[in-house]
Amino acid sequence: MRSFSGYFFLGSVALAALPSLVAVAPAFALPVAGSEVVLVRKADLEHSALGARGLLGGGLAQAPPAATPAAPSQDLPGSDPSELDEVTVVGRYLRKDATTATKTDTPLIDIPQSIQVVPRQLLEDQKIIQFNDALKTVSGVFNANPTFASFSTFNVRGFNTNNIYRNGFRDGVNSLAGFDVASIERIEVLKGPGSVLYGQGELSGIINVETKRPQPKAAYAATFDAGNYGLFRSSLDFTGPLTADKALSYRLNAVYQNSKSFLDFFQAERWLVAPAFTWRIGSNTTLDIDGEFYNARQPSTFGLPAVGTVLPNPNGKISTGRFVGEPLLDNYGSSAYRFSYRLEHRFSPNWSLRHGFSSSHQRLLFTQTVPVELFPDGRTLLRVITGTTVPDGYTFWRDSNIVDTYLIGNFRTGPVEHKLVFGFDASWFYNATRQFNGALIAPLDLFNPVYSPTRGPTILEANSFNSPSSYGIYIQDQLSFSENLKLLLGLRYDNATQRTADLLTATRTSEDFDAFSPRVGLVWRPILPLALYGSFSRSFLPTLGTNQAGLPFVPERGEQFEAGLKADLLEGKLFTTLAYFDLTRQNVLTPDPSNPFFSLQTGEQNSRGVEFDLTGEPVPGWNLTAAYAYIDARITRDTQFAVGNRLGAVPHHSASLWSTYQLQEGSLKGLGFGLGLFYVGERTGDLANTFTLPGYLRTDAGVYYRADNVRYAFNFRNLFNVEYYESAGSALDVIVGTPFTVIGSVSVEF
Predict the structure, then answer these.
(1) Cα separation of 176 and 388, whole Å?
(2) What is the pLDDT of residues 83-109, one digit of tens each?
(3) Which residues contact 611 (CB under 8 A, 6 or more apart)?
(4) Measured between alpha carbons, how far is 94 from 109 in angstroms, rounded to an integer?
(5) How much of the chain, in percent, has pLDDT values that exceed 90?
(6) Distance, CA of 342 to CA of 601 (rounded, Å)
(7) C-alpha–C-alpha distance, residues 634 and 642, integer Å
(8) The pLDDT value given to residue 148
(9) What contacts 668, CB < 8 A, 6 or more positions away?
(10) pLDDT tens per residue, range 346-402
(11) Listed residue (50, 118, 120, 62) closest to 90, CA to CA
């Protein structure tokens, strides 16, 4: 892990020690590159957030999304299974609907907030196998961990976030156990707070993973990947009906992966089994059930010191593959179990009830060598080994249970159309640190390393847990005054309790608080292909702990102002968003200058900027997605760092372009090419602004060929082997970017 809170002192050395635990449609895949006409049920499209655009080539076809399952009915329009309609597929990457922002099937152009969708087809064309690498084409989003890390934290609009959701539910274990992309159908990124509909969370945004859904037509796919650094990966994707009337269908995704890295001593292994079922119980009722069993093993890893990477070192440059831990001790073993169900009943074409439950459980066996200080000689690294004293036991436990029930209604009051959402949700979390301790271990010579697994005396211990719970009531109304003018209003009330216990000192605390979260947004379409919008929303996030006087911390608060435009270009073949945003976080923890063992809640940070996203298929066979972001994220109030300092690892300028083209005719029909450019400007490495990460331009490429039901591909990352730095957690934790990588793959569908 790379996130630490609390400071312990050994002589004159400050040791960052304890990991932060706070946050605690029946159609087979079509090999289409341009627009094609397919036959689907009209009802499935009307009640699907993806609509026709969910039935694109590149993997098995996607059913209506989990949050809005379709339910064919004999008494609702489009319910006859024999009733088929022609629908034009507009592109592999283009998505114009999403459910995350409103919990309803709302076109992106009518949402007064920026939301970007990363579809399955884009993940496949880029050959994304690490979830941390999946959002690089989204403006203003950066990976805050090494790409190869088995857990996920992202930086969105200048602020780090663990707001990662799965099928519309907060995933309680994502910050310790990540996702495998094999089971992902699409990723929706909502920029800014989603507190009105989802409750407590970070200000910067929500990342919602939608998993693959069962299909009523049998289909099977297998993919085999191999690459340098010892990569071997195999995955299966099966789906089909389980009953003759196709009322019950299933989907099964399974993955095994084994890989090394450019880092010394790195060996990673993971597997995933993800079953899912859809049961059309009656004419108007659908039940979706899914599970996920995820297991990953790899070394715990830290980055390199800034001195010797981005800053001069009298001994020269540190090897980019240097392992600063202990090969025989460092281990990150994570097991995650996820289960959820979603039930929808439609009372009529205008009224429906949705109810869902999500449960996730994670166990982590964790040992990591933590860099503490680089000696003045520039080569000797003082380290502490951290982990558990329980033999063969788990260091961390994390469990979460969430229930959400809401009513959706469409009605009129005079000339005004309403789309109403009224709901209730509740959550229970449990996070525990079991017999965690730290001990000195032999210093490491970074230029001539000699590893030693001998532990010194214990210098810190922890045995604690926290158990937050909450419930919320929310209401949202999307008012349509005309086709050109729409207003969104939302309000939520939350009541939450935070319980903590330190088993070493036998102390317990309990904190209760409540909060109101408003949201308002306006969309004006002067012409139908163009929308101008503005919005305001607030967020809150509980903060565990007390200050020096023993007073509990109040929740962190945040607010966002956003304005922009969205447009359909080239008769709907391209979709673009241009947004200006201004976010402010308040009640941010900062070190207490009078006592380094405590914090004050006086910090404030602001991030403002401009984002641009463009996606579509301008001509048949040519698909592209492009993005640009300007972000100015700074400290506006603090007791430790200077006001005006830039926030760490946030570039002023960043841009990306990914484009593919597939030949449409001739003897080489089915041959395709991809090219990607990813630019990240220079960034400060820490809040003190003591060093800078240089900017870089990375080039990726791909070559594809599809023949009948077989697809061959070669993907190249960092094509020109540029040396770059992904991120930094501190002056001792600079993350080196991965050198040139090639992955070859074969996919078979039948």
Answers:
(1) 16
(2) 333 333 456 899 888 889 999 989 999
(3) 114, 139, 140, 157, 191, 577, 578, 579, 581, 627, 628, 629, 630
(4) 13
(5) 63
(6) 39
(7) 10
(8) 73
(9) none
(10) 999 999 999 999 999 988 888 888 899 999 999 999 999 888 765 556 678 889 999
(11) 50
C-alpha 131: how far from chain center: 8
Which range among 87-91, 180-184, 429-433 shows the weakest confidence by mean pLDDT?
87-91
* CA dist., res. 289 & res. 451, Å (int): 48
Alpha-carbon distance of 137 to 611, in angstroms, equals 12
For residues 126 and 103, what is the distance between their CA atoms, to the nearest angstrom? 29
414 Cβ neighbours under 8 A, 6+ residues apart: none
Q: Which of 321, 156, 230, 327 is nearest to 735 (CA)?
A: 321
Please report, as a single letter, which amino acid is at residue 631: I
Q: In terms of Cα–Cα distance, which of 595, 74, 117 is closest to 284? A: 74
CA distance 310 to 684: 11
One-letter amino acid at 172 equals G
Q: Which residues pair with 734 in a beta bridge?
A: 304, 728
**Whole-number pLDDT of residue 249:** 97
Phi and psi torsions of 44, nearest 5°: -65, -35
The type of residue at 79 is S
pTM: 0.87
CA pair distance 702, 674, nearest whole angstrom = 5
DSSP result, 424-489: EEEEEEEEEEEEEEEEEEEEEETTS------EEEEEEEEEEEEEEEEEEEEEEEEEESSSSEEEEE
Locus of tokens 């050109």: 484
Amino acid at 653: H
Q: Which residue has the tokens 């946050």?
A: 23
Query: So what's the pLDDT on residue 461?
Result: 79
Q: Which residues have a Cβ under 8 Å from the Cβ of 219 and sit 6 or more positions away?
A: 28, 29, 60, 61, 238, 239, 240, 749, 750
DSSP 8-class letter at 122: H
d(CA 471, CA 27): 40
